[in-house]
Each structure stands twice: as structure tokens, then as C-alpha cells.
Specification:
The structure holds 2 protein chains of 2 kinds. In chain A, α1 packs antiparallel against α2, α2 (42-65) packs antiparallel against α3 (79-104) and α3 runs antiparallel to α4. Chain A is mostly helical. The radius of gyration of chain A is 23 Å and the shape is elongated. Chain A is built from 4 helices and no strands. Chain B has helices spanning 3-32, 42-65, 78-104, 108-132. In chain B, α1 (3-32) runs parallel beside α3 and α3 (78-104) packs antiparallel against α4. Classes of the chains: A mainly alpha, B mainly alpha. The interface between A and B is medium-sized, with 33 and 34 residues.
Chain lengths: 156, 154
């Protein structure tokens, strides 16, 4: 598994852990109503699980298991995936943290967060498409070199 | 595919069928105004799809496909996987019952059921992550002679 996939899969597991824990708190609060402001974390829960976990896990798995390039027989240039990794996580965090932070800080001061998150997420998806497009192809059967002949009794 | 992964994937399919049934009921209600209380199923329907179907299917496939932990113990600590399976499904079933009922007729019993459901689902996810985390790793294979590493890492 390439290193960038490891980072993506581990980050997605970490976001799953955090996102589900927030979801558990939201559900418990729905039942017991112990802390009303916790509802500001609803979109944090949604973005962490949709983008941080689901999108990151599925794209990380794709980079790992999709067919390799025909010419080089490897996964090709993985730098766009590193760009995607940082852009996706930064964009997701900005989108996820804006609603709860708006309860603490003047929302006008945080107005930049959502548009920047949008730009970062577009960068992420374009970088991913740039890398993965040539790898979406039929599987090519590479010619298998003939097995070395074992000792032939007739010829010896 | 080993037994634990089969349990996860088959149960995910069951939750998918239940979620689609609930969704169909909501859509029928939207068209024919059968009973206003059916709309209380909306939050639980999303979670049946995302937790019961999505998470459980992904968890099952990941347990099956991720690189082996060790040769002797390829799937890591399998008991964590069983805790995940039991806690996730009991938690979700409790939610399916308690969330709409608590919305229609709030009562301490349903509230406690919902809180237990939340706790069970969180426990399930923590166990799943603890089982999968050590299996996300590189397989160190020597590069063929004369081959340079890929740009951006191995």
C-alpha cells in the first residue's frame, strides 16, 4: 500500500472515530437534553463523516487498488494525491468547524471559511481526477514469460 | 471471504432492505397523507442507510480486504470485530424503535433506550477502528533492479 494511501485510510479512520463520537453525543443529547449548544456540531458530524471518512476512504482505496498504468506498470505520479489529501482535509475541517466556531466568534469574521473550504475541495477533486483518470481502464494481461524448462529425460 | 466479513455484509444488506422499506413508506405518506407520525422516521431512515448499510458494508469489506496484521493472526483481534458487529446492530435496532417513538410520545424509557443506542454505536465504531488501524500498513517489497520509485512516494 503506498504511503499516501496509508495516510488517507488512517485519517479516514480517525475522522470516523471523531465523527461517530460527535454523532453519539448528539443522539444522547436528543434523548437526555443535557447541553443544548451541542447542536452546533451537527454539521461538523455530517462533514466529518461524509468527506473526512467516506470520501477519503473510498478515494484512498481507489488509489491503492485500481489497475496500474500500462506503460510503467506502477501507480504513476502520486503527488496529485498528496495535494488532494491536504486539500480535502483542510477543506473538510474549515467547513466542519465554521458552525461551532460561529457560536463563539463573530460569524462575520469567519465568513472566509466556507468559500475557502469550497475552493480547497475543488482542488482536491481535480487533483484526484488528474491522477485516477488514466488508471480507469480495462485490465491488461501482461505476457507471462515462459517457465524455464525442467530437465527433459528424452533430450538428455 | 471469512465468516466475520460475511456476517457484516449480509447484515448490511438486511439494513438496506429495511431502510428502503422505511423510505418507501415515507414517500407513500408524502403522496397520500397516510399518517403524519410516519414523518418522524426521517432521521432514523438516514441512519439506517449510513450506519446499517454504509458503515457495516465498508467495515465488512475492510476487514476482509485490508492487508493482514501478521501471518499468524491475519485479521488482528477478531473479538473486536464481533463486539463491533453486536454493538452496532443492537444500537441501531434500539434507535429504530426508540427515536420515532420518543419523537411521537416522549418518555424516559425511550430516552434511555436512545442514549444506550448512542453509547453502543460509539463503542462499535471505536472497536472497529482499533481492529482496522494496525492493518493499514505498507507492504515493503523490493523494487525490481534498475526501477526507480514512483514520484510522490512508494
Amino acid at each position: 500500500m503506498p504511503r499516501v494511501c496509508m495516510w488517507m485510510l488512517r485519517s479516514s479512520l480517525a475522522w470516523m472515530l471523531i465523527g461517530y463520537s460527535i454523532g453519539g453525543l448528539l443522539l444522547a443529547n436528543k434523548a437526555l437534553n443535557f447541553f443544548e449548544p451541542i447542536w452546533s456540531l451537527r454539521f461538523t458530524h455530517i462533514w466529518m463523516l461524509l468527506l473526512g471518512w467516506l470520501v477519503q476512504l473510498s478515494t484512498g482505496m481507489m488509489v491503492w487498488i485500481m489497475p496500474r498504468l500500462v506503460k510503467t506498470r506502477d501507480r504513476g505520479d502520486l503527488r496529485p494525491i498528496w495535494v488532494m489529501y491536504f486539500a480535502l482535509n483542510a477543506g473538510m475541517l474549515l467547513a466542519a468547524l465554521q458552525p461551532p466556531l460561529s457560536r463563539l466568534i463573530d460569524p462575520d469574521k469567519l465568513a472566509w471559511m466556507a468559500p475557502l473550504a469550497g475552493v480547497l475541495l475543488i482542488v482536491a477533486v481535480l487533483s484526484f481526477a488528474l491522477h485516477i483518470r488514466p488508471r480507469i481502464r480495462p485490465v491488461v494481461e501482461y505476457p507471462v514469460p515462459p517457465a524455464p524448462k525442467r530437465g527433459n529425460k528424452e533430450s538428455t | 471471504m471469512y465468516q466475520q466479513a460475511r456476517f457484516f455484509i449480509r447484515t448490511a444488506l438486511v439494513w438496506l432492505a429495511i431502510a428502503i422499506f422505511v423510505l418507501a413508506l415515507m414517500l407513500l405518506n408524502q403522496g397520500f397523507n397516510i399518517d403524519a407520525r410516519i414523518s418522524a422516521l426521517q432521521p432514523v431512515m438516514y441512519h439506517l442507510l449510513m450506519v446499517g448499510w454504509g458503515t457495516q458494508l465498508i467495515g465488512g469489506v475492510a476487514l476482509w480486504m485490508f492487508p493482514p496484521f501478521t501471518k499468524a493472526q491475519p485479521r488482528g483481534n477478531e473479538s473486536l470485530g464481533w463486539v463491533t458487529y453486536v454493538a452496532l446492530n443492537i444500537g441501531l435496532a434500539l434507535r429504530l424503535i426508540a427515536e420515532p417513538l420518543n419523537a411521537i410520545t416522549p418518555s424516559p424509557v425511550f430516552a434511555v433506550m436512545l442514549a444506550v443506542s448512542a453509547l453502543l454505536q460509539v463503542i462499535a465504531i471505536w472497536c472497529l477502528v482499533f481492529q482496522l488501524w494496525p492493518r493499514v500498513k505498507e507492504r515493503i517489497t523490493p523494487l525490481p533492479e534498475g526501477k526507480r520509485p514512483t514520484k510522490g512516494g512508494a
